[in-house]
Every structure is written in structure tokens, then in C-alpha cells.
Amino acid sequence: MAGGSGVRFWPASRARLPKQFLPIAGDVPLLARTLARLRGLVPPERIWVCLGSAHRDAARESLAAFGGVRLLVEPFGCDTAACVAFSALAVSRVDPEARLAVLPADHVIDPEADFREALRAASTGLGEGELLTFGIRPREPATSYGYVEVGSEVGRRGMLAVHRVAAFREKPDLATAQGYLRGGKHLWNAGIFLWRAKGILAALRRYVPRVVEPLEAVAADFGTEREPASLAQAYARSQRISIDYGVLEPASRSGGARDGAVTVVPVDWTWDDVGSWGAAARYLAEDGAGNRVRGAVEALDSAGCIAVSDAKHLVALLGAKDLIVVHTPDATLVCDRAREGELKKLQEHLKARGREGVL
Q1: I need a surface site. Which of 164, 207, 225, 282 has the fewest CB within 10 A?
Q2: What is the pTM of this model?
Q3: What is the DSSP letter of 170?
Q4: CA distance 255 to 253
Q5: Cα 249 to Cα 266: distance, rounded to the nearest angstrom
Q6: What is the Cα–Cα distance from 192 to 222, expressed in whole angstroms?
């Protein structure tokens, strides 16, 4: 799943170049890093990338080294339930028995060998209707993630324990998150799923028919010249809802699919959805004074800043503290680190001021 609008990493990210196409956490784009993580597990011709039409060119550039990868182009973003439905329908036309690993394109996971082994083991014996998610054992009382409450163990696949999902929990306040950490029964919801194409389509029909039925009506047009127009009409009629809210949460409450229900596998990967400049800071060079920097940056008597530029344009900090400074050729952000959550508000202000060209 490679959709997204690029709000939280402005001005490096833009509407046509969101974070998954940028080297936010290293030297390669996050999308390319996600595909590289699958090497040895899934051949390129069995990898499908679902993205918006505005991002087709950026995706092709990021995927140049991965010959055979297929693109599923959404006419516009309609949340993750539509993305999952479109993908499952497209894949099932090629392989009705397919098992699907559904991965966000913008995560950082380590060690990657453990990730591949977990996907391999968890997919073995996957039930016809099972909806499996991976839960990360929390390292801190994070308030920016959703949580999965772990229920009883229902079996093992290799070294992995498989549990029923007792409940999905919203992003908590700090006190609640601290309680989750102490209790040991809650995991971070990684948003990484395993299911069979037939199983997820059945669940979509049961819980969110207004998502899947418009797409099923035009599935015969997939792969033809009629696909873009048919998809646009189907998406315009589709319900906008996430796969978590639309399917996984009600399925977990009702007992879920006939033979597998909603299950969770606890894992110990180092996992990061790199959701902000503050989160990306850990992947930038540390200058010895608490500043995290990339590119041509010099800091004097400054601390706690995040500064990003290219190799040619110098960003110089003097007496700065806890700022985010991001330089691009046509826009520069200077932001109090404590207010980076308001970047969307800033972009709305810029749009109102006629500055759409930098968004």
C-alpha cells in the first residue's frame, strides 16, 4: 500500500511526492526499501504496489531496480479498505488461491531476516477465512500508535505463537499507554496483514459491502483500457473507510471468519512507521550537540534541532534550540519541534494564501 498525501514531511514531501518515495530513513526511498525486504521471499512478479494515479511516475523511479513489479493505480485515495478490496480482486483474477501479505510502503523494520521468516511461517497453514495481523511488542508507552489486545493462544506456526485478537484499541493517552506497557497484553498495531484473497473478499462483503461491491461490478475491466474510467466510477461510489475500522474491528467482535477469526502474531522486530520529522531524526547524523542533521548543515551554540538540506545549500544555525529546519529549492520550513503536529494547519494556511505550488 503506497498511497499517502505527504503532509507530515513537508516541504521535502509534496502531494505528488509523499514520504514513501523519499529516502527518509536512509539512502533509498522507503518504498524501495520495503520491496528489498521481500527479496528471497516473494519474486518481483508477485509483488503488486497499489498507489494513486498522481504517484505513478514517482513509483516507477523508486521501483526501477525491481523488474516485474505490477502497479495497481487507484483513481484517487479512498482509504485502505478500498485499496485492500481493489488489490484482492486484481490478484484473485490471476490466482484465486493467493495468500496476500499486505504491507504499508513506508515502514522501517529490522532485522529484515526475522521479518521474512515471520511472514513465511505465519502464512503456512493460514486459514481460509483467517485475518492475521502482526503486533509489535511495545518498547515504550507510545501514544501515536493503535494497539492490539492479545487474547488466548490458538496455535503455533514454527516458532510463532498465534493468538485471537481480543480487541483493537485506539491511540491511547499516556496513562493508558503506560498501563498497556505494564500489563503486557497489548501490542502496537503494525498494520501488516496476512489473509487469503477469498477470505478478505468474503469479509469485505460481510462488513463493508459498499466498499467492495462497486469494485466487483467493474472487475471484468481490470487490465483493459476500460480500467481507469471504470475504477473512477467505482471509487466515486465506494465507502471511504479504513480496513481496520471497516473489517478487522467488527470481525474481532463477532468472532470473525468461520475457521480463523482475527488473529495476531506477536513479534519483536524493531519497527517504525516514521510518521514525522521527529521520528525521522533517529535516522539522521548526530552532531554531538543533540542536533540531527543531513546535508550541508553547520550548527553553532545550537541544540535539539533537526536540520535537513542538500549538499549545495548551506543551512547555518546560531543559538537555535529545538527547531526543525528543512530546506528545499522552492520552500524552507522553520518550525518549533513542539508544533510539528500542526504542519497540516500550516499547509492549509499556505493554500489559502495561494501557495499551492509548493504543496
Answers
A1: 225
A2: 0.91
A3: P
A4: 6
A5: 18
A6: 25
